[in-house]
Amino acid sequence: MAKCERVWFSSPHAHHAEYLQNNPRMSTLRLPYNRYPYHCTYGDDSEIEPGVLQHMREVQWQAAVGFHMQKSDLLVLDNLFALHGRLGFTGERKLLVAMTMN
After folding, report:
1. Is 30 exposed, middle or buried (CB count within 10 Å of its CB: 0-12, 13-18, 19+)?
2. In terms of C-beta distances under 8 Å and separation of at least 24 residues, what long-range contacts does 42-50 make, across chains too?
3. What local confidence, expressed as pLDDT, does residue 52 receive?
4. What is the pTM of this model?
5. Of 34, 56, 30, which is closest to residue 45 (Cα–Cα)?
6. What is the per-residue pLDDT for 86?
7. CA of 39: how far to CAs of 8, 15, 74, in Å?
């Protein structure tokens, strides 16, 4: 990507109250969207349609790349260019974080 090129940096599909409603830990709660710890809408404060959220999730999974990390592997990501996360795992976890600024 060229320097100074604009990128879209957002995850409304994961920051919408619907995401929390579908979380097993919160699935018994049925609160109004504005009562959840976070919720996102369009810029005019209107709700993002469920079909739009689902489309974003589908596109994310279509573009996903999975891999198995092994002991002593190191992964470095630029948060502006890569959506990242992990699926469940077993075993101990050691998380080290470093942040830099240009």
Report:
1. exposed
2. 48/12, 48/16, 50/18
3. 92
4. 0.63
5. 34
6. 72
7. 18, 6, 33
CA distance 52 to 13: 9
Q: Which residue has the tokens 């959840």?
A: 36
Low-confidence residues in the chain, pLDDT < 50: none
- Tokens representing 8 are 């879209």
Which DSSP letter does residue 3 get? T
| Amino acid identity for residue 37 in this structure | P
Alpha helices, H only, the chain: 17-21, 50-63
Distance CA 37, CA 31 (A): 11
What's the pLDDT score for residue 7?
Answer: 57
Report residue 63: phi and psi, to 5°. Answer: -95, -5
